[in-house]
Here is the input.
Amino acid sequence: MTATPSKPNYAPFEPNLDGAIAAANYLMTVQGYGIRDYPSNMAGLVAAILNLNVGQSNVGITTPQWAPIRDEDGNITADSFDPPPSNGTLWFDTRQGKLMVWVNDGFYQANGTDRFSSVGESIPEDPIEGQTWLDTDNYIYYIFDGNLWIELASMAGSSGGDGGGVSNVVIADLQQQIDNITLDVTPEEIVALQTQITNLSTDTTTQIGSLQTQITEIDKDAIDAKLTELEALIAGQTTSITTLETTSTDHGTRLTAAETSISTNTSDIATINTDLTALQTQVTDIDTLLGTTASELASLRRIYYGDSAPTYSGVQNGDLWVDSTELRLLVRSAGAWFNPDRNASDDDSSETLIINAVNNSTTFDEFKTFINANT
Here is the structure.
């Protein structure tokens, strides 16, 4: 008895010419090349077989077999793979320059999970989640969270007065956030303000130097020496009077001469006392001026430069800090350091306050009064 061999099952393809062409088209489709039209004859079958000689790789910005689902307005609401690629299918993502491979349920990076970084003045196009970008226009480092560019919170001391805080998170993607804070203050105006503040500091330093010179010229030791000398002269005059009174035969004449001499000396002493009183008044005025100058210096806004927030106990609102690490200018306000291009409006920014104070002041007292009145 001879057994009849069973036919092999090629489902869903028919075991005929059209089924063979359909099977070839299926293999091309799962590799991302799509269905091709072949004639239903041996020539079409040969062409379909020859076209199978392709590598399992795809190049582009979208994955093979990706099928987006759109609503009536054309917005993508979901997606799928139709049909799903076969395991091992390769895809070179031209956005990132990375090779991806399909395994079971999705495309995975073939060389690990490193992220893509960009450097430049313009926001990268078609970013991916986790991508980083160094903005060379302001040297701020951002990361893309899948929706927006977020500034990395890596700069210590920019939001806390004790130097232990981190910078506030800001949105850098202007195309997706339309209410970003903008400032009308130009870099040239900031430089001019810094120059004016430096000039004020220089003038104050000159005044202090002049006061120190005047104080140095007042030699208290010399005054004490003069007083001692006068006392010695008075003592000598008294001795002379005693000698004259003792030795003079004309006691009346000698006494009159002595009285005249004493009167003259008394007048000289009174004059010296008057001069000493005037001198003491000048010293008191100078001490008062020094106290006033010290108070003005304490209230004067300062500019600090360094890689960490100033820890000086006299830091006050309106002081400026040039962050040498992040190359940015921060202003002191309400007990904290703020970056003026993210934390101030056009009307109440600290830079605008200082510029207005300088432009509306002719003396340091007016400058201080303006700052205190508007802080």
Q: What stands out?
A: The first strand starts at residue 57 and ends at 60. The longest helix spans residues 251-299. Residues 153-183, 343-348 have pLDDT under 50 and may be disordered.
